[in-house]
User: What shape does this take?
Amino acid sequence: MSDRPKVFVSRVIPDDGLRLVLDEADATVWQDDMPPSRDELLRSVEGCAGVLTLLTDRVDDEFLDRAGPQLKVVSNFAVGFDNIDVAACTARGVAVGNTPGVLTETTADLAWALLMAAARRLVEGDRYVRDGHWRTWGPMLLMGPDVHGATIGIVGFGRIGQAVARRARGFGMRILYQDLHRASPAVEAEYGATFMTLEGLLPQSDFVTLHVNLSEETRGLINRERLGWMKPTAVLVNTSRGPVVDSLALAEALQNGHIGAAALDVTDPEPIPVDHPLVGLDNCLIVPHIASASRATRGLMATMAAANLLAGVRGERLPTPVNPEVYDRPVG
Ligand code: DGY
Assistant: This one.
């Protein structure tokens, strides 16, 4: 029997991190492209000291029961951790890690790419050419709104929201933002950003981009009523989590011209079925949750997730714990 800590890694992650795990732990790595089924996941975590999870793995009491009391750490390969019941982990003394910071700029790049692509109708244009419809230059062909000089409403003004604001500044945009907490005057001045309620922000924004965590407060934040507050020409960009937007209400708003377009990296449900009303709408662009998918960033995420996992199984403090309160629990 190996005296190395037993860990489960629920998908093949970039080598930068995987190598670190394999060097130090007795690791089982799920090899399939598809995630383990619930049963397979529960079976795989039995007796583990650490588990490296993905956002497709639900970590809850059932998972923790099956893993057993020796479990020390759950290290999520993502900055978001809405797949994990953090309170349940804390109650059992299990540290939870995530990968903040390293994916900020890459995610903002994708949000920007979606915003530009939806505004300038790039996917529709590409399809138009490939389908053989391009017969001449057209004075009215595939017109869309200008990005430069427009008003952008950033909902969630944390690391990624602010990274989007930096891009918006470069395009000479007016920047509005909404967040649970108002940013400091210095941050507002740095971005030239104006704090607003959603009621104020949505009717004024040509582009609305979402950068909030998924929580009970933000689930369904962009609902039918709030979509109704937006401009008929507005573009909605979502790179946060699918359930932040009511997807059926969004489909209706896009179909009825209540808003202009949407560009989504995340959907509800995920993956989105091809017969979902959002799929097939020309004014809805959807990509498969790839905001952090640059080679460099995924490598950094892997290294960080491995560092959290290995610190946890050694009994050390995680470099980036989600639940630092776990270290304040009385021992014994
Ligand atoms: C995250 O990290 O939360 C993203 O959704 C995947 O990179």
DSSP finds twelve helices and twelve strands in the chain.
